[in-house]
């Protein structure tokens, strides 16, 4: 089966075409650091399909990373994946982005951390390939790296995590990892974004009443 894999949960725009017949292999992929996910995602998918020598009609399933990540980034990838799924009549499988990264790392205990901004990180921990904790969002200093063998974290955040005997590296999400994290044989569940934080927008607090405005008992007006 030809699978289209997408992820916009991080600053990397991830897109790829994976052939899952036999041993999964990538026919075409792009992992690019950008903040213009909305403008670049669909043109990138179109280009990759051409590079892979397949068309939209050949796609049998879509896999998309559902975070954790910022609201705007997740919305781009998940909305696009849903649109492709509806237009093509194919299933759309959502996966945790950190799960997809962990699938690419061979270690007894792996910790995956990504930039959550606001001086925080999104993280999840894996033991024997299965998620053992997270995903969660905390300050970098609060992440427990003590028992990790490998820590995947963006270079600019590496020094902010507690020091340990782990190997620190950075592994970006990839089409192959996304497909490996998905159960393509199962009925896909509704896509659920992992925001992990409340939205920035808040309902404004009521303005205090001016002392110049008299209090009127409406009952007295009847």
From TrEMBL:
Residue ranges annotated for the Gcp-like domain, each copy included: 33-145
Cross-referenced InterPro entries: ATPase_NBD, Gcp-like_dom, T6A_TsaB
SUPFAM superfamilies xrefs: Actin-like ATPase domain
Keyword Transferase: yes
One cellular component (GO) term of this entry: cytosol
Keywords (A to Z) from UniProt: Transferase
Keyword Transferase: yes
GO molecular function, one term: transferase activity
GO biological process terms, semicolon-separated: tRNA threonylcarbamoyladenosine modification
Top-level taxon: Bacteria
Pfam families: TsaD (PF00814)
Protein name: tRNA (Adenosine(37)-N6)-threonylcarbamoyltransferase complex dimerization subunit type 1 TsaB
Species: Corynebacterium qintianiae
